[in-house]
Amino acid sequence: MLEFNEVKITRILNPTSIGLGDFVINPFMGCEFGCLYCYVRANRVVSRKNKPWGEYVDIRINAPELLEKEIIKNKPKQVLLGSTTECFQPIERKYKITEKILGILNKHGVNFVILTRSPAILDYLELLKAGFCRKIYFTLNNFGPEFKAGLEPKSPDFKSREQAIKTLISEGVSVVPYFSPVLPFVSDFSGIFMKLEGAQTIEFECLNFNLPNIRDIISKIVSVAPSLQQDYERMLRDREFYTKVFKEIEEDIKNAALSAKKRYNIYIHNFGGYFKNVYEK
Ligand code: SF4
After folding, report:
1. Is residue 280 part of a domain?
2. Closest CA to ligand 1's atom 7
3. From the CA of 38, how far away is ligand 1's center (Å)?
4. Which structural domain range is residue 36 located in?
5. Tens digit of pLDDT for each residue in 144-194?
6. 52 upstream amide cis, omega within 30 of 0
7. Which residue has the CA at smallest separation from atom 3 of ligand 1?
8. CB 163 within 8 A of CB 119
9. CA separation for the pair 208, 217 (Å, rounded)
10. Is residue 276 part of a domain?
C-alpha cells in the first residue's frame, strides 16, 4: 500500500559531485514507480527499514519556499533535478512541487538538468522552454512487457516515453534518450536510433551487476527467460565472459549508431566492482 506523507525539510539544495550540476534537488523522497534496479534502493540516506522502496513518498511541501532562500545564499550555477526520485511521478499532479521549483529556477536564471522517465514532464513544456533547461536525460527501454512487469511494473509504458521524447525534441528541448538498463541477451538495439531519429545522441547504461539486489533482478529476468539462467550466473562470476558479453553489446550499439549516423555513449560497469551510489539526497 502506497503511503504519502507531507514533510518539511531543512534544506533543498544539496551539494553533489555527480558532475551534472553543483547541487541536486529532489522534491520528493521515495518514488511511486519503485523500479527493481533503482540505485536509490541501496541508498541508506533515503531508504527506509520499515517500508519497501516504491511504497512511500514524502512530499517535501516546503521545498519551493526553501529554494527561494537557498538560491540567494548558495548561488548555484547548475542544478540536477531527480537524482533520487522521479520529479514527475503521479503525486506531482496534486502538489505541483516540481512545477514551483522549475518556476523559481527560471526566475533566478539558474540552469538545470533533469533525470526522468515520465511523460508527465510534457505538462511543463513552457517552463522547460524558458531558456534554462540545459538537458533532460529521458530513460527508456524496449524489453518486452513480461520483463517490464518484473523489473518496473509501475513505470510509464515505453511507447509513451518514446512519444514524449519525440515531442520534447520537436519543441526544441535538449533531450538525451537514456536507454537503461541494457540487459545482456535480451535488449535489442536494432532500429532504436532510427526510431528516435530526432535525437543526435543516445546513451546506454548496462545492467549493473554490482547492485546489492542483483540476484532478485536476475530472478525476475530468468523467470521470463529460464534459458538465460546459466549465462546470468556466469556473468556474476566470470570476468572474461562478462567482459566479452558487454564488448559484443558495445559493438552492436556502435554498428547501429554508425548505420544511423548518430552518436552514442555506453556505460559498462566494472566487473566485481564495489557498488557505490553516487547520488545524494
Ligand atoms: S523512476 Fe527512477 S527514482 Fe523512481 S524507482 Fe525508478 S529508477 Fe528509482
Report:
1. no
2. 38
3. 5
4. 3-267
5. 999 999 999 999 999 999 999 999 999 999 999 999 999 999 998 878 898
6. no
7. 85
8. yes
9. 10
10. no
